[in-house]
Amino acid sequence: MILSNLPQAITAIGGLGTAAFGLLDAIKPVFPAINHTGFDRIRATIVSLTPNEPGAQPPLNALPQANVLESLLANWINGTDLASQKSIAKSLIKLHMSAGNAPALAAATNVDPALLTQVAQSIASGTALTQQQGDAYARFDLIATAMIDEAYQHADQVYRNTTRALAAVIAVALAFAGGLSLAGTWAAFWWKPDMAIALLIGLLATPMAPIAKDISSALSAAVNTMQMVKK
């Protein structure tokens, strides 16, 4: 491959990566587990922050734990802005807090259980919080926010890494299909240089997809510059 054709080759490799991501999006409805990737970490955190009071109904004006999880999962699958998802999760957690589940919630966030129970009772009755109660509630809010942020950031990283890996597999499969079609027969492709080239192109496709245009433009400019210098 001569240098002047390199920008076109890079653009083509990036296009293969884009096609792999597009195909992955197309098959997500067939394999819903892809969209659920990463949510297990969020689920575990939300379960710990929305403890159910044994034998009692959820607090008034609050969703049951199962409905909280369903709501957050729907936002996760639909790709709602991450900051909005965190804000919604924290709001639902606060609404779920009651005097009955406050001790378990305090244990999950390492806050004084007696004070958090008093906070829940004061909120339910509309009573103003004392200084101690306000401090305890602020600590609870800070710790819950940190836990939610950690869960969502970790889940987002798992989701992005998983989808990139799946897109890379698709890109390699597409590159192999293209290489095999050019070789004509499986015997002429398997363990031959064309197979190694197809594997390399497939592995490079997804990382290069977002930057292929910039690299191609930069290389084209470099080639043009060199050609002008040589004249």
What do these coordinates show?
With 231 residues, the chain is an all-alpha fold. It has helices at residues 6-27, 33-36, 39-49, 65-77, 82-96, 102-109, 113-125, 131-183, 186-189, 193-208, 212-230. Helix 3 (39-49) packs antiparallel against helix 4, helix 5 crosses helix 8 (131-183) and helix 7 (113-125) crosses helix 8. The two termini are 22 Å apart.
- Could you name the ranges where pLDDT drops below 50 across 5 or more consecutive residues? none
Tell me the domain tally.
1
Mean pLDDT: 87
Decide which structural class fits the backbone: mainly alpha
What spatial form do the alpha-carbon principal axes imply?
elongated
The H-and-E topology, N to C, reads as HHHHHHHHHHH
Into which percent range does the helicity of residues fall? Answer: over 70%
In total, the number of strands is: 0
| End-to-end Cα distance | 22 Å
Radius of gyration, in angstroms, nearest whole number = 27 Å
- Main beta-sheet annotation: none
Number of helices: 11
